[in-house]
Amino acid sequence: MLKKKYILPRKKNIMQNAKVIRTDYFLVKYEKNNLDFPRFAVIVPKKLTKKSVIKNKIKRKIKTILKDYIDIGSFDFLIFMLKLETNFWVLKEKIKEVFDLLKQSNQC
Does the structure show a pLDDT above 60 at 108? Predict the structure, then answer.
């Protein structure tokens, strides 16, 4: 799990001016923050699964994977799931693709 300082707090007007990267599995919104570290939020909509047990399991897996990207820079990331995937290794590969796209576009 991520430490509390790396969790993006809930706000109403969050990510108003954010840039977006869309892949098959994720929609990632990101914007610069004024901190020295990144913050992450993960959303698994009810549309994918109604069971909160599965949604929380996916969130925990994604947050565990995001530990590897703590040194990405001072950005806020909102990760929105588009397809249901529960396999840890598939999720890790797909998140790696997203952050590789960010690094290639010289945003992070």
Answer: no
What's the distance, CA 30 to chain centroid? Answer: 9
Bridge partners for 32 per DSSP? 75
Buried b (16+ CB within 10 A) or exposed e, 29-68: bbeeeeeeebbbbbebeeeebeeeeebeebbebbbebbee
Which CATH number, 3.30.230.10, 3.40.50.1260, 3.30.70.360, 3.40.50.1820, labels domain 4-102?
3.30.230.10
Decide: 55 and 93 in contact? Cβ < 8 Å.
Answer: no
- Per residue in 27-55, pLDDT tens? 988 888 888 888 899 999 999 989 999 99
pLDDT band at 106 (very low <50, low <70, confident <90, very high): low
φ/ψ of 59, rounded to 5, equals -60, -40
